[in-house]
Amino acid sequence: MINHQFWMSKALQLARQGIYTTHPNPRVGCIIVKNNQLIGQGWHQRAGEPHAEVYALRQAGERAKGATLYVTLEPCSHYGRTPPCAAALIKAQLAHVVVATQDPNPLVAGKGLTLLTNAGIKVTCGILAAEAIALNRGFIKRMQHGLPYVSIKLAMSLDGRTAMANGESQWITGQAARSEVQRIRAQSSAIMTGADTVLYDNAKLTVRASELGLDEAATELALQRVPLRVLLDTKARVGLDKAFYQTGQSLTFSNQPAPAGLALDQEWLTLPTEQGHLNLRQVLTCLAQDYQVNELLVEAGARLAGALTVAKLVDEYLIFMAAKWMGSAARPLLQLPLTTMNEAIALAISDIRAIGADWLITAHSQC
Q1: Cα(93)–Cα(111) distance, integer angstroms
Q2: At what angle do helices 52-60 and 4-15 cross, to 10 degrees?
Q3: What torsion, rounded to 10 degrees, do the Cα atoms 311, 312, 313, 318 define?
Q4: Distance CA 170, CA 168 (A)
Q5: CB of 280 within 8 A of CB of 303?
Q6: Which of 87, 99, 147, 219 is close enough to 214 for a disulfide, judged by CB 3.0 to 4.6 Å?
Q7: CA pair distance 366, 199, nearest whole angstrom
């Protein structure tokens, strides 16, 4: 008897190889098995290139007839930048297709499974679904809700401080934590910050190869795609001479007109403000719909982090905690207008692990 979980876990391992490169497409892996032997495998590497099923079918060749195929996301059923995979599976005369989870893309959304079933292919769906969904949580949220999956990265001391009173914050955590942040950046579709962070820290929000801490092959993958760097600068306080504007493609949201001198790869969107602030939901909707941002990493100060929290737009908090005191005059983790315990915002901690000499606490919103 075939162990579906075993082979699907192999397909998920392949899918994870696309963690840095597939944006805006989902990460997908595929395995073909016959007589309990692997005869073909593949993973989707980047948008516009063959899907995972195509690579696996190429390896299997004519042996695919009568075989079982495992794929981490429902095979597509429409013509996009590549032909529909469901049609290729039917042509290959597979006997059984095992799928981890349905594709939330309205262009697919069960249509691929229906095509396979109607062609006489046995279909099983839901094997290791939770793992497959977690791998593509940003793609799924964008398809289902029109918003990116939002993670806020925060670094704090044991007393919950993120910067000294004068704004100084480099460095709270150690090198191992900073390498972890670089890897998280490389996995993200976009990285967003506010004017204060750029002005105080001279932030670039780039992925630095020297700090990734990956082997040569993984580093090459991580650097193949550059995350979009996004700046919220309502009053246009950040000058074009700052390092943020000297390091490649960027997108700025402001309520001020674009300044003269922007480079061709520096976009500027002027949006109306509400009580002097940008509408954060409008910003995130724009990133999802117009820029196909699946996972948005926010690296910002207490004000923007607090505003996103109050607006209930945060899915995940990545809190790096250093074993040091910074004192009561230092700046807090978030600016939140809370005055009573009844107003306290509850989070669900999903993971705590050591990163070098520091700790990484992963918490999720419960709303």
Answers
A1: 18
A2: 120
A3: 120
A4: 6
A5: no
A6: 219
A7: 33
Side chain identity, residue 21: T
Confidence label for 202 from pLDDT (cuts 50, 70 and 90): confident
Nearest to 300 by CA among 162, 138, 157, 142: 162
- What secondary structure does DSSP assign to 156-219, as a single string? EETTSEEE-TTS--TTSS-HHHHHHHHHHHHH-SEEEEEHHHHHHH-------GGGS---HHHH
The residue assigned the tokens 């959304």 is 109
pLDDT digits (tens, 9 = 90+) for 113-172: 888 899 999 999 999 999 999 999 999 999 999 999 999 999 888 888 877 777 666 778
Q: How far apart are CA 76 and CA 113, in angstroms?
A: 9
Token pair in block for residue 130: 């939770």
Count CA atoms within 13 Å of residue 361 on its CB side.
Answer: 15
Q: 27 versus 103: which is more confidently predicted?
A: 27
Least confident of 13-22, 71-80, 125-134: 71-80
DSSP string, 238-261: S-TTSGGGGSS-EEEEESSPPPTT
pLDDT at 57 (0 to 100): 93
Whether 57 contacts 40, CB under 8 Å = yes
Report the pLDDT averaged over residues 200-206.
86
Residue 6: pLDDT over 90: yes
243: β partners: none
296 forms bridges with which residues in the sheet? 150, 190
Report how far residue 21's alpha carbon sits from residue 230's, in angstroms, rounded to the nearest whole number. Answer: 19
Question: Based on C-alpha coordinates, what's the Rg of the chain?
Answer: 23
Distance, first Cα to last Cα, the chain = 42
Single out the catalytic residue among 49, 53, 316, 343.
53
The mean of the pLDDT values for the chain is 89
Tell me which residue of 94, 205, 201, 176 sits closest to 353, measured CA to CA.
176
Is 220 considered catalytic here?
Answer: no
Q: Copy the structure tokens of residue 94.
A: 């597979």
Do the Cβ atoms of 199 and 220 come closer than 8 Å?
A: no
Q: How many CB atoms lie within 10 A of CB 315?
A: 17
Q: How far is CA 297 from the centre of its chain?
A: 7
